[in-house]
Design brief:
The chain is of the alpha/beta class and 299 residues long. It has eleven helices and ten strands. The protein has a seven-stranded mixed beta sheet with strand order 2-3-6-7-8-9-10.
Length: 299
């Protein structure tokens, strides 16, 4: 593993047009040690002139200083910031660099709402800081969990912690005012899409009392597509032909999508888990508005 310390000109970046319910993100690291075989962010290392997304990690050592410059700027209106949307802020590098506590302390100082997405229970190290921030403004803690099968999980996400440890993390945050989300993303055809697999994830989400559950199928494009096919050839060669047929046009087969979304809708009804990511965010905004406070700004 190689770490490259770099500096950034800005900590908060504005996103382009998207369907996401936020417009700003913050990523402490470039590259990710979790090694997910389906990672959509592989393309981002081309800007670093590096081909090793999993093994060459770039660390923005001045992230906290640049963050404060932006948060205290008169032009900043306290919009929701998504932390770790491209690369996980709690990947193993964070255990040594400890940059997230400084980021969270600034979010507390400026009472800025955040979304934190992770596949690691290292986030529990910062439990008190996140709990304090959640008492001041909107905080969402989301865990991405793709399968209850630990053997499959180790192949798909070799550098991440077990799915059960992620569920335990979500359960621990019950003690805070943070919203908690389960992201079953991606659902991978022929690997993680069985009724039994998805039902176990819904059940565990229900047991943990998550605020919502999002589920989306695997998209294959760019470097992700090539890397995923290489993984399937090595580990599941018997599935290669069927998978490539499902993605034959470049997009996932429509009939397959219909069946998947019908199953997900059935499971939502059975387990009472909403897909309304914005529900708790809107509720907090309305509450603060009624109290005469600053309304939460999404964009």
């Amino acid at each position: 593993m190689t770490y490259r310390e770099i500096t950034c000109k800005s900590a908060i970046n504005k996103l382009g047009k998207s369907r996401l319910p936020y417009r700003y993100d913050l990523n402490i690291y470039r590259g990710c040690q979790h090694g997910c075989r389906y990672c959509f962010a592989l393309y981002s290392h081309q800007y670093m002139e590096s081909a090793d997304f999993y093994g060459e990690i770039f660390v923005k050592t001045n992230i906290a200083e640049q963050l404060e410059v932006q948060l205290k700027s008169p032009g900043w209106k306290g919009q929701v910031i998504n932390i770790g949307g491209v690369t996980d802020s709690y990947q193993p590098a964070e255990a040594g660099y400890r940059l997230m506590p400084r980021v969270l302390e600034l979010m507390i100082k400026y009472k800025n709402p955040v979304i934190i997405s992770t596949k690691s229970d290292l986030i529990l190290r910062d439990f008190d800081l996140i709990g304090k921030l959640a008492s001041l403004t909107y905080v969402n803690v989301a865990a991405t969990i793709t399968t209850p099968d630990e053997g499959l999980r180790q192949r798909l996400e070799p550098g991440a912690v077990s799915s059960e440890r992620r569920f335990a993390m979500l359960d621990a945050f019950r003690k805070t005012k943070a919203s908690r989300g389960l992201h079953v993303m991606p659902v991978i055809p022929l690997l993680t899409d069985s009724r039994q697999s998805l039902e176990q994830l819904f059940l565990r989400g229900k047991e943990c009392g998550v605020s919502y559950l999002l589920a989306e199928p695997l998209n294959l494009r760019g470097r992700t597509r090539d890397a995923f096919w290489d993984f399937i050839r090595r580990c599941y060669p018997g599935l290669l032909e069927d998978l490539q047929e499902l993605y034959g046009s470049g997009r996932l087969d429509r009939a397959y999508l219909y069946r998947l979304y019908r199953l997900l809708a059935e499971l939502r009804k059975t387990y009472g888990l909403s897909a309304d990511f914005l529900g708790s965010m809107k509720a907090l905004s309305e509450r603060d508005n009624q109290r005469g406070g600053q309304q939460l700004s999404l964009f």
